[in-house]
Amino acid sequence: KREQIEPVQRHGVHAVVATPGRLKDLLNTKKFNLDLCRYLCLDEGDRMLDLGFDEEVQAIVSFFKKQRQTLLFSATMPKKFQDFAQEVLVRPILVNVGRAGAANLDVIQEVEYVKQEAKIVYLLECLQKTSPPVLIFCERKQDVDDIHEYLLLKGVEAVSIHGGKDQDERNEAIAHFKDSSKDVLVATDIAAKGLDFPDIQHVINFDMPAEIENYVHRIGRTGRCGKTGVATTFINKQVEESSLLDLKQLLLEAKQLVPP
């Protein structure tokens, strides 16, 4: 913390990039202030809200003594996020680039009907679509553990993270995945929130998420910086019809193949 704050205190800076929690701590302890700051930029606002940082952001806003301009960026705009925006913005103007909640057009979206009992076996075939790294999302912790164990038995270099693992285990898994010593990461949405993995080639949704916003965020992990990525989603009779209708609309907007 001292290494981060010394340049600010000694010389002053034009911009500070920080997580909400750390910034709030530094402001509370008066390590620096926002008396001369006129601009606040909040990136990935919907994810920030999902992670529970709304109180931290509101606290940070309270430290601005004079008029400020706030820029709030978000890939999706669910009702909860809209309410949050009204609390932290003053006379806001909405600018849409494309449609909020739309999928990245650089991602090839493939939706496949797979019976529930066949998904874990079909997963191996699915991994052959692209080179690593591959990110697999599951809804349940138990599925994460089962898939991880199955992949290891089949000789796949895989690691896993979920909320039931301790922090050291998660940090080790993330480090191995980032340095390419492991090819596949199996994760829940909650465990993967806030983590950035460059150059993901393939995202596999072992389960179709209930909220379409989560689907957009998941597949947005690939196809970055103008590169093409692949997203494969398993569906079957257990998926809610409302989720399937949302998915169909998303596929049509992105000019992707809609399965029969």
UniProtKB/TrEMBL annotation:
Highest taxon above the source species: Eukaryota
Could you tell me which residue ranges the Helicase C-terminal domain spans? 106-260
Q: What class of enzyme is it?
A: hydrolase
Domain Helicase ATP-binding residues, every copy = 1-95
Task: Say yes or no: keyword ATP-binding present.
Answer: yes
UniProt xrefs under PANTHER family = ATP-DEPENDENT RNA HELICASE DBP3
Q: What is this protein called?
A: RNA helicase
Q: What is the lineage of its organism?
A: Eukaryota, Sar, Stramenopiles, Ochrophyta, Dictyochophyceae
